[in-house]
Each structure stands twice: as structure tokens, then as C-alpha cells.
Amino acid sequence: MVSRLTTTLSFFTYLFILFSFSSSSTTILPSNSDKVSLALYYESLCPYSANFIVNYLDKLFEDDELLSIVDLYLSPWGNAKIRGNDTFVCQHGPYECLLNTVEACAIHAWPKLEDHFPFVYCVERLVYERKYPEWESCFEELGLDPKTISECYTGGYGDELELEYAAETNALQPPHKYVPWVVVDGQPLYEDYEDFITYICKAYKGTATPEACSKPSGYSIQRSKAKSIPPVCYRDTIISTLLEKIKSEISLWMQ
After folding, report:
1. Rounded CA gap, 80 and 185, in Å?
2. pLDDT of the chain, 255 residues: tens digit per residue
3. What is the DSSP letter of 74?
4. Angstrom distance (rounded) from CA 73 to CA 71
5. Residue 96 CB partners (closer than 8 Å, separation 6+)
6. Distance from C-alpha of 130 to C-alpha of 132, rounded to nearest angstrom
7. Peptide bond into 133 cis (omega under 30)
8. Among 225, 204, 195, CA closest to 66
9. Whole-angstrom distance, CA of residue 110 vs CA of residue 250
10. Rounded to an integer, what distance in angstroms lies between the CA atom of residue 55 and that of residue 233?
11. Distance between CA 78 and CA 44 in Å, rounded?
């Protein structure tokens, strides 16, 4: 029953995001110089990355005013490691490398946030629901032509994009320790990443302050009572592919 309810809520949230992108808005947008940069460094099969995208990052798209002050950047590399000859391995195995590359191709093919985020969200929703082998269904669901993405990840260009994300991620200062790794205006949020909206509001220097920034974050209140640290996929954890896969499946099942 809980699993069915969670899936139903995720589906309606997904529909709401699509509606937010497609509906017209009368909000006066701030200039690019006023926007707060929000960067997410993640890997596709880390259950905590999927949870953040599906259940936290989506909050941006529930508020047009809030979304208008944010410059969101996605980097699908995470804890992968480069081997010789420009090849790489991923923390959760070859399927994660595939989906990282697919999402990199989507971001490249559809550079506008309103074009690539629904696809990334769709794939990560399937990861969250433990249905990620069905990721190609996102093309039909969103009415997208798969040809461009297919040519990108099968033709080698997707690997080039991933190596660019690798260089960028490995150059982070301070270095990332785990994923999801959330950075607001150049400052990592560490374990407080789920409260990213509070940090966006604090960093915003423009005049068109969203209404959401004038009230306390519900998540901050919840965290202060629970005093818990949100789970992450650590960068330097040495674990076999099989054990990591089992760990991820158990984590997804328990949500």
C-alpha cells in the first residue's frame, strides 16, 4: 500500500512539473546577474541522488517565482572513475555509466532547462521506483524523438561529454565527498543539501524576492527536530559492484 501510494504521488508530482514547464507565467523574471547558481553533481543510480531529484529538487518547479531566480546546472558524473584510454567505471556498475551518459546526451541535445529536466526527472523517477531498465519509455511519455540521444550515447560522443563532466567534477574545490553534492553560488551544502531552498533564498541579492523566501522552510523545521543526516553515496567507498547494487536496491525498497 505504501509503495503504491508513493508511486502515485511521484506520478502526480511528475505531471505537475510537466504542467509547470508548459504553462505560461506572468512572473517578471530577474536578470541573469541576479540569479543564484544551483549545481547538482550526481550519479544516475545512486538512490539518494534519485530521491533528491524526485522529492526535493522538484520543489523548484512548484513555484514559478522561486524557479525564476535560479540558474540550475546538472552534472551526471558523480563518483565514477577514469581508467586508462579515456574509459571509465561507475560506482553502481555499467548500467549507471549508460544512464549517466544518456542524461549527459539529453542535457547537450536539449540545453534549455525546460527541455532536458523533464527527461532527467523521468529517468530518475524510474530509478526511484526501481524500474530504470524501462528508461527508454521516457521518450514516448514525453513525446521525444530518441534518435538524437541514441546516436549520442552509442556513437561515442556521450563518452566525450562524460569525460568533460569528469574533469569538471574532479576540479571542484573543495572536492566533492559524496553524491548528491549540491552547490549554491559556489558553496557546497554538504549534509544540509536537502535544505537547498533556504540557501538559495539567503544567496539571492535581487529585488524580486519570491514569497517562498519570506517563510521558514518546512524541511528546516523537520530536520531540526529529527537531527538526522540525509544519506549519501560516498566517493571513496570501496565496495564490489554486486554488493553496491544490493545496497542500492535495499535503500530504494525501504523508501
Report:
1. 24
2. 434 434 444 444 444 444 444 443 333 444 467 899 999 999 999 999 999 999 999 999 999 999 999 999 999 999 999 998 889 999 999 999 999 999 999 999 999 999 999 999 999 999 999 999 999 999 999 999 999 999 999 999 999 999 999 999 999 999 999 999 999 999 999 999 999 999 999 999 999 999 999 876 655 545 544 556 789 999 976 444 445 555 555 655 555
3. E
4. 7
5. 43, 44, 45, 80, 90
6. 6
7. no
8. 204
9. 33
10. 17
11. 8
Q: Which helix (H) or strand (E) holds 164?
A: helix 157-170
pTM, to two decimals: 0.80
Helix (H, G, I), strand (E, B) or coil at 76: strand
Residues in the chain: 255
Say how far apart CA 55 and CA 147 lie, in whole Å.
30
Do 123 and 102 meet the contact criterion of CB atoms below 8 Å apart? yes
Angle, alpha carbons 85-89-91 (nearest 5°): 160
CA–CA distance, 54 with 11 (Å, rounded to integer): 10
